[in-house]
Amino acid sequence: MSRFLLITNDPDFAKRMQLAIAGLPGAMHTFTDVRLPESPGELLRAVPGGAPEVIVLGPGVLAEDALHLAAVFDVQHPEISAVLVCDPGPDLALAAMRAGIRDLVDPLAETDTVRVVLERACHSAASRRRGLGPAPVVDGPTGRVITVTAPKGGVGKTTVATNLAVGLGRIAPMSTVLVDLDAQFGDVATALGIDPEHTLLDAVTGAAAEDTLVLKAFLSVHPSSIYALAAPLSPAHADRITGDDVTHMIRQLASEFQYVVIDTAPGLGEHVLAALEASTDAVLLCGMDVPSVRGLRKQTDVLSELSLMPASRHVVVNIADRHSGLSVRDIEATLGQAVDVVVPRSRAVVYSINKGEPLLQNPSRDSAAKAMRRLVARFDPSTAGATRTGLHKRADLR
């Protein structure tokens, strides 16, 4: 099925479109004849596999023809989103809005910008389809909610969370979202190298709390095919976010995304407890030092007593060092449970953090990258069973 229909005689833009949809579900069909038909039916009959979700009226299409066709589509096929590629101007933007054009994109826009526009158009199409048909019955969250937590700071929660999300983005492109729940000092945006327009505070207040589509519009798109929700700009804003706000937001995201990865603040504050209560999985993190390991043992004991420990848990030893004086067996003996993944100390990780590109964003043979991929594999439906077989083989620092 062709999810995207592109009409253009510009091969360069067609290539950028192809790159923009890479990893997204569905394919693209291209018409190089920019002479538009009078009716949508004539155009749609020429598209193999049924009607697309998004029609992109690209370079070469006359603006007046594009607006006419878009207006007819808006009446006859409101479930299809139309995007116009043009040099944006206030007069044309107003005419496009009146014709039912979903979005405008500059002909010279970069691939990432085109991807964002296409994603917005797809969301709009999905919303319209839901509005035209019977509302689906949703009993509860459908996505997997993975909370990365640790009792102490400095053990690399953000590094693990960002790499886990990027890795899951390869399994579920554009269906993975990373939430920075360290509402005071979160730095997911820095780790991903993004400058978000909206933050966690926007996501739990106003229209976003009432409408999941508005919430999705507040998410930042990352080149690794994931969405991200950054921490508030000011630590003072954390006081305006309650545990109930967090629970509601997680349920909203879990109803739309296959994976919701949550980076948390150290300890067991209100936001962390709310996230764990709504989670299907917990990634429990510690370093290879006695205070960190003992802190994690206390944290797991408290969560078990409060019945807040998710059924599926994954113990990760991060920044592991053979010369620390501890072995993985020592850590397991203290925790009273097996260690699932050991991530060794690596210069590549430090470099990736300073660069603002998670280690798994690019191919890497680094030992830490291999360990991160083993963690990601634990959440991959196609490999999860194999990952749990021979559980202790991957703990190399025993």
**Which consecutive residue ranges, at least 5 long each, have pLDDT under 50?**
134-140, 388-395
Largest sheet: 8 strands, mixed
Q: Number of helical runs?
A: 17
Coarse shape: elongated
State mean pLDDT (0 to 100 scale). 88
How would you describe this protein?
This protein is α/β, with parallel strands linked by helices and 398 residues long. Helix content is 41%, strand content 16%. It has 17 helices and 13 strands. It has helices spanning 11-20, 40-44, 63-76, 90-99, 111-132, 157-171, 188-192, 200-203, 207-210, 212-217, 243-254, 270-277, 290-305, 328-335, 347-355, 367-377, 384-388, and strands spanning 2-7, 27-31, 54-57, 81-85, 103-105, 144-149, 176-180, 220-222, 226-229, 259-263, 281-286, 312-320, 341-344. The strands form two sheets. It has an eight-stranded mixed β-sheet with strand order 8-9-7-10-6-11-12-13, with helices on both faces. Strands 2-1-3-4-5 form a five-stranded parallel β-sheet, with helices on both faces. Helix 6 crosses helix 16 (367-377). The protein is elongated. The relative contact order is 0.10.
